[in-house]
Write a structure and sequence with these properties.
Structural class of chain B: alpha/beta
Low-confidence stretches of chain B: none
Strand order of the largest sheet of chain B: 4-3-5-6-9
Order of helices and strands of chain B: HEHEEHHEHHEHEHEEHEH
Helix content of chain B: 25-40%
Structural class of chain A: alpha/beta
Helix content of chain A: 10-25%
Mean pLDDT of chain B: 86
Shape of chain A: elongated
Shape of chain B: elongated
Largest sheet of chain B: 5 strands, parallel
Low-confidence stretches of chain A: 349-353, 571-576, 608-612
Distance between the termini of chain A: 57 Å
Radius of gyration of chain B: 23 Å
Strand content of chain A: 25-35%
Number of strands of chain A: 36
Oligomer: heterodimer
Largest interface: A-B, 31 and 45 residues
Number of helices of chain A: 9
């Protein structure tokens, strides 16, 4: 192993390098003996052969380019055979800092868990040998490299300080599995607040769990928020703590960025650990565009460990959504005029330019719609999103299981329903089955091209209200999920990239602070919850509320374990030839082939002369 | 092989001259061994039964009272046989100037012969033998034949030829003895050169041998230092350091070889000329033709 200009060069079979001086000696001998490569054709060697032979060899050693080329080829071959490679003197460490939402929890009196993780990582890096190189990652929903590979300790420390808090949940489990399997890292250092499971300390994987203080696990958070039909705000609050506590829920509503806020009447909630509490706030003004709600613990002896999830945002669509109907029957025949929450129109010509959400009754769209779509009891055949509708099976009318967590099935007990006619579905790749019969899925819900869609393999209409409550509630849920939620609130996980309508030309955060967003192919990358104002190309403005309701991250009292992959044995970096060595081998081999071809040509020429 | 107008005008001033008389196939401009009805008186001969009484010299009969008939010299054409060495020592791509000079010389000589209506046959040793060309209008086909032979030999496979056997075969195809012009570099062992020339001499031909050497034959590999010398005929390679002393020895040996050939030609009544192929070919050929003495 030789250190040269800061690079360590080593060979797998160093004794083969002894061949290099031998090769030089051999080439010099051959060069002096064989004479120049210059050939001269003469008419006849009749007299030349009779001349006394004098040694042709050079008297002075002035080798031509060919000599150096041959020397280079032999040297390259020997280097390749000896397994020469660039070896790093130090290790290459992947430093992974968990930056998920829970890492924003306050940690004692000195910052957050993320700050504590940075402090521990800084100490580790400072203690490591100076030859160690680092690649710093931030792990939340995605694993984001914050730096170039092979940073020095000084650079890595600077990069580490640039790790930002994320509002997204972590996927540390998957990220660690990929990093541990990556052979370019000698070790993976992880800094997280998650508890460890099956952790066996090894040099390959070092997990640093932020020591958690039970006094810092109390947290109240906004769990859900939506607008009720009465116009009131229904706010669900979650709580994680040792004992029940009181909390103040307040907020304010805005009718545009320039209007003064109207405060919501504050309420005091009695929060119970591990149980959600729903409160209703009635905006004082009738017209509002968006609202902010805020929860705060009232016990002065405790502090809310995670203030990041104490706010919730919601926008309001004051008008009833308009929906197109594609059916052989009229809206009256389908009972849709009885539904107060939507306005159904069958005048396609009038509404075609508006690209309204659409209900397809016993038919399917020909192409993938760009607006929310409900497909009811489609005929058998292919669906535009993929998947297909099958013919009715002999047994398939009974509902066997369902996804109760889906909003469409909220308050619905499908086991009470027996459908007179059912068509099993093969759900499109972008959809998930939410309702199953013995013959397979009979309802699929999904999202494609930024638009939601729901396909039911059974009949929903005519809408009969309380006469058939299960189907009616299902239908109303579907309308709400498909049509009313559009553009009102983005609940749940804060998306990494949010698709927008192609007509949107500008997007800007207006709450909690003003921040321009860059549109990239009709998508934006929202960094935090808040209100985004969208400008359409025709000048109209819309508001979009973004929230990050992550119960797994917000509930700090819940044990969140991390099951670590077994430490895989890794071949040492210092014994694996680098790619450049392979390239050297290939280059030398190629030149060798050229020399072989030239030699063959010479031999063939000799043979031809001999035949003659 | 085309000749330019200037060369043709120069060649028009030449005429084929033979030192000996030959039997010819047609009436021509050269004195023949045949006795007949020419203009020039040859001899008296005693009258024999069957002689035409018109040729009886009555004056001589009046003086000597014996009957003699007068014989005259016949004038006939002379067959010209061009033999060009087609071996690799002339046709190797690196040495092809020798071939071009030889072919150009043969073309010029053939033009002169054809202009006086003498038949010309070209035989390329290692190649093909042409048909007999007659008259000035045959000059173009003759040139085309030489061009074709040159292309085939220069671009073709480098097969070594047995020059002695090729000369023997070519000599057997001679119908009428006449003038034979052999163009070769004669860089063969002396015995082979002698055997080759004897093949044509045995056909009772007047032989003119032209040794066509190249500049590299006079001074091989002028580059200093060692070289790998490749025999154009055999492909044999030898590594040789051609220092001034070696080159001097080579020149000496070449001169000795040429002198031996010259001595043999002298004893065998073969006219020998040594020439060096060089550009421009026309001047080179005219110079050689003049030196050969075959054309005046």
């Amino acid at each position: 192993m030789i250190s040269l200009f800061g690079t360590t060069i080593a060979a797998a079979s160093p004794w083969l390098l002894l061949g290099i001086p031998c090769a030089i000696g051999f080439l010099v001998y051959i060069f002096r003996v064989r004479g120049t490569a210059h050939q001269a054709v003469v008419s006849s060697l009749l007299f030349l052969k009779e001349l006394p032979r004098r040694p042709v060899g050079r008297k002075t050693f002035v080798p031509p380019l060919q000599f150096w080329l041959e020397l280079a080829i032999l040297t390259l071959l020997l280097l390749a055979v000896s397994g020469l490679y660039l070896a790093r003197s130090g290790k290459h460490i992947a430093v992974v800092v968990d930056s998920s939402l829970s890492m924003g929890a306050l940690y004692g009196a000195g910052g957050t868990r993320l700050d504590q993780a940075k402090r521990i990582a800084t100490l580790d890096i400072e203690r490591a040998p100076s030859s160690t190189t680092y690649t710093v990652f931030s792990s939340a929903k995605d694993l984001t490299p914050l730096s170039q590979a092979h940073e020095s300790s000084t650079e890595a420390l600077t990069t580490l300080q640039g790790a930002h808090q994320s509002y997204r949940p972590d996927s540390l489990q998957q990220h660690l599995a990929s990093l541990v399997g990556d052979t370019q890292y000698d070790a993976v250092w992880v800094y997280t607040d998650r508890e460890l499971e099956n952790y066996q300390p090894s040099q390959r994987l070092v997990v640093n769990q932020i020591p958690l203080d039970p006094s810092t696990s109390t947290n109240a958070w906004i769990q859900d928020i939506h607008v009720e039909s009465s116009g009131a705000l229904a706010v669900k609050v979650g709580y994680g703590g040792a004992s029940p506590k009181d909390a103040a829920l307040d907020g304010e509503c805005f009718d545009g960025p320039s209007a003064s806020p109207a405060k919501l009447p504050a309420q005091t909630l009695h929060l119970t650990p591990q149980a959600g509490t729903t409160a209703t706030l009635v905006p004082s003004r009738a017209s509002w565009s968006y609202c902010r709600v805020h929860i705060k613990l009232q016990d002065s002896s405790l502090f809310d460990a995670l203030p990041l999830d104490n706010e919730g945002w919601i926008t309001h669509e004051p008008t009833e959504p308009s929906v197109d109907l594609v059916s052989s029957l009229s809206a009256e025949q389908l009972g849709l005029r009885k539904v107060k929450t939507i306005t159904v129109s069958t005048d396609k010509e009038k509404d075609s330019s508006q690209k309204l959400p659409t209900i397809y009754h016993r038919t399917v769209p020909q192409t993938v719609p760009t607006t929310s779509t409900l497909v009811v009891f489609p005929p058998s055949g292919a669906l535009p999103w993929g998947g297909s509708v099958e013919t009715q099976g002999p047994q398939g009318r009974e509902v066997t299981r369902w996804d109760a967590s889906h909003p469409v099935l909220q308050y619905v007990n499908p086991s009470l329903v027996s459908f007179p006619e059912v068509r099993p579905l093969e759900c499109p790749p972008s959809a998930t089955p939410i309702l199953f019969s013995t013959g397979g899925p009979i309802a699929c819900a999904g999202e494609d091209k930024g638009a939601r869609y729901l396909i039911t393999g059974f009949e929903l209409f005519p809408f009969e209200g309380s006469r058939n409550p299960t189907i009616s509630i299902f239908t109303l849920n579907a309308f709400k999920w498909l049509f009313q939620s559009s553009g009102a609130t983005v609940t749940g996980e804060l998306p990494t990239r949010l698709p927008l309508s192609e007509s949107i030309v500008e997007a800007e955060y207006i709450h909690p602070e003003n921040l321009k967003l860059t549109l990239e192919g009709s998508t934006i990358a929202p960094p935090a919850p808040g209100i985004i104002e969208l400008y359409d190309e025709d000048g109209t403005e819309r508001y979009l509320a973004l929230n990050s309701f992550e119960e797994r991250e917000s509930d700090l009292s819940r044990r969140s374990t991390l099951s670590l992959p077994p430490p895989a044995p890794r071949t040492s970096t210092t014994s694996s030839p680098t790619t450049s060595t392979s390239l050297i081998s290939m280059l030398a081999l190629a030149v060798l082939l050229v020399i072989g071809a030239d030699l063959t040509r010479r031999i063939l020429r000799r043979v031809r002369w001999g035949d003659a | 092989m085309a000749l330019d107008a200037r060369t043709l005008r120069l060649l028009d001033t030449f005429a084929l001259r033979t030192r000996r008389s030959f039997y010819g196939a047609r009436q021509g401009a050269h004195r023949s061994q045949r006795r007949g009805h020419g203009v020039e008186f040859a001899e008296y001969r005693s009258y024999e039964l069957g002689d035409n009484p018109r040729y009886i010299d009555w004056n001589l009969y009046a003086r000597s009272d014996k009957i003699y008939v007068k014989r005259y010299l016949e004038e006939e054409t002379v067959s010209v046989f061009m033999v060009i060495d087609g071996s690799r020592s002339l046709t190797h791509p690196a040495l092809q100037l020798k071939w071009h000079a030889a072919a150009h010389l043969a073309t010029c000589a053939s033009y002169i012969a054809l202009a006086s209506h003498d038949p010309v046959t070209v035989s390329v040793l290692g190649g093909h033998q042409s048909p007999q060309f007659w008259g000035p209008r045959s000059f173009a086909p003759l040139g085309a034949f030489l061009d074709s032979e040159g292309t085939q030999l220069i671009d073709g496979s480098p097969a070594k030829i047995d020059i002695v056997e090729a000369a023997r075969i070519a000599a057997t195809r001679v119908r009428f003895p006449g003038i034979c012009v052999v163009i070769s570099d004669f860089l063969y062992p002396l015995e082979e050169v002698v055997t080759m020339l004897s093949s044509f001499r045995s056909r009772n031909m007047e032989i003119h041998a032209v040794q066509m050497l190249g500049a590299q034959d006079i001074d091989p590999d002028p580059a200093s230092g060692g070289s790998t010398l490749v025999d154009s005929e055999t492909g044999e390679e030898i590594g040789l350091s051609l220092d001034p002393a070696a080159r001097e020895q080579y020149t000496k040996k070449l001169k000795e070889h040429t002198e031996a050939i010259r001595q043999h030609c002298l004893s065998a009544q073969i006219h020998f000329v040594q020439a060096v192929a060089r550009e421009p070919l026309a001047e080179n050929s005219i110079s050689i033709l003049t030196e050969m003495g075959l054309f005046i």
